[in-house]
Write a structure and sequence with these properties.
With 525 residues, this protein is an alpha/beta fold. The chain has 15 helices and 25 strands. Bound molecules: 1,4-dihydronicotinamide adenine dinucleotide and magnesium ion. This is Potassium-activated aldehyde dehydrogenase.
Length: 525
């Protein structure tokens, strides 16, 4: 058993996973603001259930809750409270007050200390956080541990930027003194998805705070738990003034929409589907909010004849089965050069079928855990059927595991045509297509033939070819002889329909700053 829930909480229907309009909201005014949850490793911790506003966990005005489940068991973990428009407004007012009340001018040392301490706490609570993440999202514990480690690094690295953000003196001659300042935007709305709940929280919150902004962040409706846990750590250790960070649970069309419409919010940072990203950007036009978007992808991973086959195999596997394939930059289109095609594809299919362990996320050697929701499972199974209907050949997988939980076997499609939907559209699961190519020019053309441009992989031992192809591929990240290989100082973000703006590294700071130019006329003496 993985949960503890108060006797007053009834089990809700699976309707949560259908369109949000079918969710049955219920009033559970007796649900405490914190409940004990027992993790699969036997540890019991206190899980906050409320909205985190002004450094306190509070009830929403309407006191509605929604169910949070474990995708690996389909069992309930907890209920959490749902924010509606009026609660979004409370969070925004708290963030505005914190911004105007001092955070907009917070001293660099204050920010360094706070963000460093958050990094320390993430490391101290790493095992609990990894277990919460795995339980809530379905991902394997080994993947969740990686997310936690990168999250700590992002906070620690962001702390280091605090005293390095500044403008320039601009030489304009003796008549004037001209300089620029880099100033915060104000209250930032942040909307994150369910595939990396803790990591996306970190990628959004750390750079916003170090640039003196305040935050209202909405977690995904299927994965609210780890962000609330971090808020508890922030609260217990008194790390930030009230209102600097506010975290609310809720659904896209209600809570998310209230963020995009709120006139006080100056910027929206979003990670999620391209369709929702477009809708958010259109909404933000009404109040002229700045927008950064990290959206979908259909990234090519290219394996040349001269690749080290073992390295290339590991890159292909990490490219598609890491995080159960629920990765915006997944290497979901594999291009293999003709000289090694048969040998490589046979090896890859064998590996997918026999060496990628799928199932209980908490077993140490499980690579691929559960898909995040019934919706996502259905979407992936729909694409697998579509691939077969389109005439592609299943080389591995292609079905759900015959057990409880949303598990899909690692799947490979061969004999694909470039205009098939399974080659064109984002599936967001452990499903990859394999195509054969002859020349460099041909594969560059095929790789770039996508509306997306989030990432691409190149597997080759020829450094000249790697540098040349890396220049020619249209994508925000190029991985050479590796894949899905993130670093907290390396910027990440998309070309084209994959979005705008960059996260991590120095680039992300630009998303949260605006330049003020000061030009002073000098009286000549
Ligand atoms: P989504 O993009 O609709 O949801 C992501 C976040 O946006 C969630 O927090 C959601 O509550 C919020 N949201 C939804 N509609 C909104 C609206 N109108 N206004 C403001 N916020 C809104 O993605 P969803 O439905 O969870 O997944 C659908 C597909 O999106 C997946 O199958 C996958 O292909 C893609 N996706 C891509 C992600 C990425 O990292 N690029 C992450 C999650 C999903
Ligand atoms: Mg969940």
């Amino acid at each position: 058993m993985i949960r503890t829930r108060p006797a007053t909480v009834l089990r809700s229907s699976r309707g949560l996973f259908a369109a949000s309009s079918t969710i049955s909201h219920r009033n559970y005014s007796t649900l405490p603001l914190s409940i004990p949850v027992t993790l699969p490793n036997g540890t019991t911790y206190d899980q906050p259930t409320g909205l985190f506003i002004n450094n306190e966990f509070v009830y929403p005005k309407q006191r509605k809750t929604f169910e949070v489940i474990s995708p690996a068991t389909e069992e309930e973990i907890a209920h959490v409270y749902e924010a509606r428009e009026e609660d979004v407004d409370s969070a925004v007012q708290a963030a505005k007050k914190a911004f105007e009340g001092g955070w907009s001018d917070a001293d660099p040392i204050v920010k360094t200390r706070a963000l460093t301490k958050i990094a320390d706490l993430i490391e101290e609570h790493a095992e609990t956080l990894a277990h919460i993440e795995s339980l809530d999202n379905g991902k394997s514990l080994q993947n969740a541990r990686g997310d936690v480690a990168l999250s700590a690094n992002v906070f620690r690295s962001s702390a280091g930027w605090a005293d390095k953000i500044g403008g320039k003196v601009i030489e304009t001659g003796n008549t004037h003194f001209s300089y620029t300042r880099r100033e915060p935007l104000g209250v930032c709305g942040q909307i994150i998805p369910w595939n990396f709940p803790l990591l996306m929280f970190t990628w959004k919150v750390a750079p916003a705070l170090v640039t003196n902004n305040t935050v209202v962040l909405k977690t995904s409706e299927t994965t609210p738990l780890s962000a609330l846990y971090i808020c508890k750590l922030i609260q217990e250790n008194n790390l930030l003034p009230p209102g600097v960070i506010n975290v609310i649970n809720g659904f896209g069309k209600i809570t998310g929409n209230a963020i995009t419409e709120h006139p006080t919010i100056k910027k929206v940072a979003f990670t999620g589907s391209t369709a929702t990203g477009k809708a958010i950007m259109a909404k933000c036009a009404a109040t002229l909010k700045k927008v950064t978007l990290e959206l979908g992808g259909k990234s090519p991973n290219i394996i040349f004849d001269d690749a080290n086959l073992e390295t290339a195999l590991q890159s292909a596997v990490a490219g598609i089965y890491y995080n159960s394939g629920e990765v915006c930059c997944a290497g979901s289109r594999l291009y293999v050069q003709e000289g090694i095609y048969d040998e490589f594809v046979a090896k890859f299919a064998d590996y997918a079928q026999n060496k990628v362990k799928v199932g209980n996320p908490f077993e140490e050697d499980t690579l691929q855990g559960a898909q995040n929701s019934l919706n996502q499972l259905d979407k992936i199974l729909h694409y697998i059927k579509l691939g077969q209907d389109e005439g592609a050949t299943l080389l591995a997988g292609g079905e759900r595991l015959p057990q409880k939980g949303f598990f899909i076997k690692p799947t490979i499609f061969g004999d694909v045509k470039e205009d098939m939907k399974i080659v064109k559209e984002e599936i967001f699961g452990p499903v990859i297509t394999v195509s054969k190519f002859k020349t460099v020019d041909e594969v560059v053309r095929l790789a770039n033939d996508s509306e997306y441009g989030l990432a691409a992989g190149i597997q080759s031992e020829d450094v000249n070819k790697c540098v040349d192809v890396a220049r020619r591929l249209k994508a925000g990240t190029i991985w050479v002889n590796t894949y899905n290989d993130f670093h907290h100082m390396v910027p990440f973000g998309g070309f084209g329909a994959s979005g705008m703006g960059r996260e991590m590294g120095e680039d992300v700071l630009n998303n949260y700053l605006q330049t003020k130019a000061v030009r002073t006329a000098i009286t000549q003496k």
